[in-house]
Amino acid sequence: MQTKKRLPEVEIEDEFHFPLRGYHLDIARGEVPNLDNFKKILRWLFLLKYNYFGIYFEDLFPWQKYPQIGKLRGRLSREELEEIISYGENLGIEVFPSLELCGHMENILSLPEFTRFSEWHRPQEGTINVFDEEAREFTYDLLREVVEFFPSEHIHIGGDETWALGRGKSLDKTNTFKGPELFELHHRNLINIVRDKGKTPIVWGDMLTGMYLRPDEREKWKVVLESEIWDDVIIANWDYTNLSEKHFREKINLFGKRKEKQIVCPGFSNWGRFYPSFDIAITNITNFLKPAKEEGVKGFLVTSWGDDGAEALYSFLDPLILANMEIAEGNGNWEEKWIALSGERHEVLEVRKLFGNDLFSMTIKHVFLGTPTFRYYSEILKDNVHRREKSTGDLWLDYYMGFIKNLKDTEALLKEYEKMLEKVYNVTLPEDLEMIRDMLRIGIKRLRGEVNFSDFVEFGNRYARLWLSERKKENLEVVIVKIYGAAGRADLRIF
User: Fold this and answer.
1) What's the pLDDT band for 228 if we cut at 50, 70, 90?
2) Which residues contact 425 (CB under 8 A, 6 or more apart)?
3) Can you tell me the distance from the alpha carbon of 178 to that of 201, in angstroms, rounded to the nearest whole number?
4) What is the pTM of this model?
5) Is the pLDDT of residue 98 over 50?
6) Domain extents for the chain?
7) DSSP 8-state assignment for residue 64
């Protein structure tokens, strides 16, 4: 019975399309959240009914056997991790590790004592020499310690983008390309280590089919999927493009009889940018999750990445975390839900979305910093720009071609920026969005040839304050060096 002082007892039953509803956070490119922010993220996930949270470490797990790994890069302590795991568990969220034990190991392989394990003669490429037994055993040591530490059912062992595998030192030894065979051998052992502890391995799906390789190479890698070792794993099928539902349905069906073993992994398009591309992210999420529902996929693991310095603040991702869940399990009207849960005014939400349009989010970094990147690509690849479709299906080609087509015509870009500033000029914004508005203002000044040193000093101070409010201090310098480099170019009139 309900009265003024008493609410009736009720029981709420939730029903979901996806049993596994996860968020995968990259902390390895420098953007290590502080403990308070980890907890804030977990509370947001709890409110939105996520039940899995993957932390992408690369070199930032606190290995006791190798304490030099991750040092000075903001590596999490064991005590911090235990608190994060426990906090998630109390909210009904499984916190699990996401590792790289074949490719993307550059921060480990670049350390002098581990350089000898690199497949490539340049360890910054990041792939380990799987042909070398000592190198393999090294990765097995890394995995065993993580498996022992984490109470989670799931352990993500990585496996993506190992393009150099079989092409370096191992090729020198055999004179025969054995990339697929080495991949299968190595991951068989990794999977067995996880399974022997009664846990479930997760592996990225791209190398299992060679889906992001050239057609001639793709055929060679298809043999990997034929191995029985994938019967006991969850395949994380990632694709961050803004292509059609048909494209994603075909991608989901690439895995044949193992289709039911996969989870789909859309992305927030926040990498290589100061602000996420909402347009790309929302289209990607929508067109990936709809066929995933229809094809009976068991879950999703939406991803946030920090390539090229992790400039985009975590606070910019909260609406996308909500949008992903609303598209996955609700009616898709994420804007209405965001206003209800955040208390934000509609005009502020419109500014968020405006900053997230392709034209701005993909160009402002290059205009603001005044780098020669766009000049190089627009001159070398300009003949291809007019032939670009909505998406090529190639993640990085789309990224570069996406801003090239707009950076070619700086006069037109200036007009678009000026229109944007006029729309947002009088809106009262939270400090993070105010910073992006300031970036827009500085971008306009650069396009007009009016930018000066002090613009960047003031911006850098604000950016540093916002970074430190949500992240550890380590790696802030990576972004600050870029900002002050832009200040130097402005001071020297190098545009």
Assistant:
1) very high
2) 437
3) 24
4) 0.93
5) yes
6) 20-340, 346-491
7) S
